[in-house]
Design a protein that fits this description.
Ribonucleotide Reductase, subunit A, globular, 319 residues, 64% helix, mainly alpha, binds fe (ii) ion
């Protein structure tokens, strides 16, 4: 049996939230799927495309930028679907072992249902753009290994599950919030609406993961807390070192006429991209620092080495 750490009244509040504030992606006032896909729009939120800040960007016409950002958004949606699938496997794995009389049981089912809806709206986007050939995490050895291991990690080490869940959700949330309030008039309406629908439900998921983690940390022995800090910091340091976000983007021959593999790699390693990732990690780390998962001395070390300057450890850095 896995003990639920979230207070019952907190779970009940989230349960009420899941009923009152939900986004059904096939309500026309949530997403108008009839908006045509064309080459007059852009498809990635400002600052989040691999093109932004790269040497490629000024050379491209609107039509080319439109295609490339649509390719990128569609690939990311494919991989985000796989990421949410893995998260659902973990949540259902834990659910099997918790007390069904605790309101968290129902809340976790709400969360899985919401994630399934996110998966299906992302999948609708992927199928709507069937001219884009995506390559997903499911075809990737790393993705397959993660999907097999996650339910095991989730049930054996819930503290690690909630930390990783928190990181995954915060990363997705940052891009979604930018899309929802992006001043770029060319951003395609479906992209904006889809991301907005995601933001509203993710806020609850982030709150639940954070709450479980905070309460669990209070009960953990110092040695276990140190182990959690070490694993979390190593994960974050690897993401920063490789400049590799949670939802990966793989090169495809489909964009070769516009972007060579070398130019793609260079764009992913551009200073703009590095700074974006530092701000994304910094937003999540700001909260993990408050909770006590990431240690001050590690942050000082990262600041000295330039891996993560302290002024980027700010939860509102991307607002
Ligand atoms: Fe989601
Ligand atoms: Fe979520």
């Amino acid at each position: 049996m896995i003990r639920v750490e979230v207070p019952r009244d907190f779970s009940e509040t989230l349960n009420r939230g899941s009923v009152a504030k939900r986004c059904y992606p096939w309500d026309v006032n949530v997403i108008d799927w009839s908006a045509p896909i064309d080459d007059e729009h852009e498809y990635m939120p400002s600052g989040f495309s691999f093109l932004h800040g790269s040497e490629l960007e000024p050379r491209l016409s609107l039509k080319e930028r439109s295609f490339l950002t649509r390719w990128e958004f569609t690939c990311l949606m494919r991989n985000q679907t796989q990421g949410e699938h893995i998260l659902n496997q973990a949540l259902l794995g834990v659910l099997y072992h918790i007390d069904p009389y605790d309101p968290a049981y129902r809340y976790m089912l709400h969360e899985v249902a919401e994630e399934c809806q996110h998966m299906s709206m992302f999948n609708d986007w992927v199928r709507l753009n069937s001219d884009i050939r995506t390559r997903g995490l499911g075809q990737d050895q790393l993705g397959t290994a993660v999907s097999v291991l996650t339910p095991v990690i989730a049930t054996r080490f819930p503290a690690l599950l909630w930390t990783l869940t928190f990181l995954f959700e915060v990363f997705g949330d940052q891009m979604a919030r930018r899309a929802a309030s992006d001043p770029n008039k060319r951003l395609h309406p479906i992209v904006r609406q889809l991301m907005k629908a995601h933001v509203i439900e993710e806020a609850r998921h982030v709150a639940f993961a954070r709450e479980w983690l905070v309460r669990l940390l209070e009960t953990m022995r110092p040695a276990s807390r140190r182990a959690l800090a070490r694993v979390t910091e190593t994960t974050l340091a690897t993401i920063l070192r490789l400049n590799f976000p949670f939802v990966p983007l793989f090169y495809s021959a489909q964009i070769r006429p516009l972007v060579s593999r070398r130019a793609f790699r260079r764009a992913l390693q551009s200073p703009h991209r590095r700074e974006l990732l530092q701000r994304q990690v910094g937003g999540a780390v700001a909260v993990l620092r408050e909770i006590g998962v990431v240690r001050e001395r590690t942050l000082r070390r990262w600041d000295r080495s330039g891996r993560l300057p302290l002024d980027r450890v700010d939860r509102h850095a991307l607002d």
